[in-house]
Amino acid sequence: MSKPTAKAPGRHGGQGQLRIIGGEWRSRRFVFPDGPGLRPTPDRVRETLFNWLAPYVEGARVLDPFAGSGALFLEALSRGAREGLALDTNGEAVAALRNHLDALKTGTAK
């Protein structure tokens, strides 16, 4: 049996999906470009993480230095972070995250 020579397309036709699990934007769904190593933190992991961080997120300034899909960054803003900065080297992911922030009409994130 021969090995495939081309990479199989992403599960969502070149796009991944993420869902905000808590806060102001709870249940909002976003798409982001599929790419190698680019995947959102699973819902259960984010829920556990933000349950631990709940006392510190409200009113906080957040930094997501390896934002990727933006799942953690958007979750923090949804849960009341005052402002934030997300960074990533994947230009398509950064553009998608900017579009999400524009759609949410938030002026507190870069």
Automatic annotation (TrEMBL):
GO terms for biological process: rRNA methylation. Pfam families: Cons_hypoth95 (PF03602). The keyword Transmembrane does not apply. InterPro entries: RNA_MeTrfase_RsmD, SAM-dependent_MTases_sf. Keywords: Methyltransferase, Transferase. Transmembrane segments: none annotated. GO terms for molecular function: methyltransferase activity. This is Hypothetical 21.7 kDa protein in ftsY 5' region. It comes from Pseudomonas aeruginosa.
